[in-house]
Amino acid sequence: MAWDSLQNRWVVMVVCIWLDCCTGASYGFSIYSQTIKTRFGYTQQQLDTISVFAGLGGIGGILAGLLYQCFPPWIVLLLGALHNLIGYAALWLFLTGRLTSPALWELCLATCIAMNSELYYSTASMVTCVTNFPANRGIVVGLKKGCLGLSSAILSTLWQVFFQRADGSSFLLVGGIVPSAVALLIMPIVRKYDPGDCENGSSSTMKNLAMVSAPLVFLALFLMGSAFWDGHTLQANRVEFAITLVILATPLYVAWKASNEERTSTKNSKILVPLMSQGDSNIFDRYVIAKYVNSPLWRVIFSIDFFLAFFTSAVTIASSLVAINNMNQVATSLGYGQQDITIFVTLISVAQFLGRFGSGVLSDYLLFKFGIGRPLLTALAGFILCCGHLLIVLAGTFPQALYFGCIFIGFSFGANWCLNSITVSDLFGLGHFGALYNVVMIGNPIVSYFLSVWVAGYLYDIEMVKQGGEQCKGNTCFDLTFIILASICVLATLTSSILWWRTKHIYRKRMSN
User: What is the pTM of this model?
Assistant: First the structure.
């Protein structure tokens, strides 16, 4: 009987949220990046090359999407856990000297394997939940993507409790053990359910989703407030982590209550065996752009609309990653210490949550109320990202601008992750969503490599040589880099606006139905 109470789409949603809240260790790269740089004597270009390989896991993400279409979600979760353990264990052994000093390619490979796990987790978690709540995909994707953005702040808190910031390499232990353990525990629960007669778009479903979301919004604000608190003793960190666990447990009660309501209202819920097809009866898939209905995967990938979504995602997310992964060096060049860097990581993480969750909820509201397409919000997020990059440029003159720049970049980064995913499901349906979602993500490491290594790293090393030291000091280290990032974000804003113009009639048609 107890096991039966766990077999419903609401419990699946909550346990997937728990997984999302601990699988974003890659966003904490700036915590241990300086350890890598000093321990192996790397230049900024070499360090940025390693950070780029964190994104190359997107190539494996395509495999995760294809596997998801052929096997149940627990297979994908198991593979993610194996990648996670192997990759992070190798990185930790390299950084602690337990393995011989690695070549650069060995560190890059270990990083790629470790970060690849996040794509397996995300595919199994997000696609399952979108399938279980097809008419509420905006708030569902926003919530789940938001929790992923919040995860680096949660892992940072856990790291402080057990290791007291002893060394950046110890953060890798947290990133390797915790997500793998959670994934293995929830594997038997994560599965797809037929919503049946539960009326996905009903006020009852929206109310329960809002109740699931409320504690997580409070958690984001709580972690942001604690980041600015100076009294970070070991005891205070333990209390903070205990409060975090209590807040994360709260949605389980909402899930139990919501599942009981659905059992009372309908007896038709059953486990789905196949994926939902393009021709599913759900209203959101009935009005996919006509030429893509029942189209093979290759035709969708080579369409103009998919290219616009692909380009926008690649530029906005890659430019954000350059800023996030170099935040340690940006802060250090401006004279900030490790405590401040931890604050910047937390600010970016919390702002990611607000951007991901807020954009999902707002895009659903604007779509149902006014028929406004999500690509228009993506264009707005690109403009906010442009402003965030320019704020970093001003940080050398106005120190507080760095804090606001982190918030702007984190918020826009989160919004783009969420909106790009939902837009793909909106325009091309759920039939190939697992594969298409990961194809969109593959553009990120390509653009990120060029921007990280040949823009940020190259310009930093040139300025460091001019100064004649081992580290670059002052705002001149990154000013030109962030001006370039702001410029290309303007281009991404234009491409997203074009996609909105091409698809606005589709969204209006959906609103009328």
Answer: 0.78
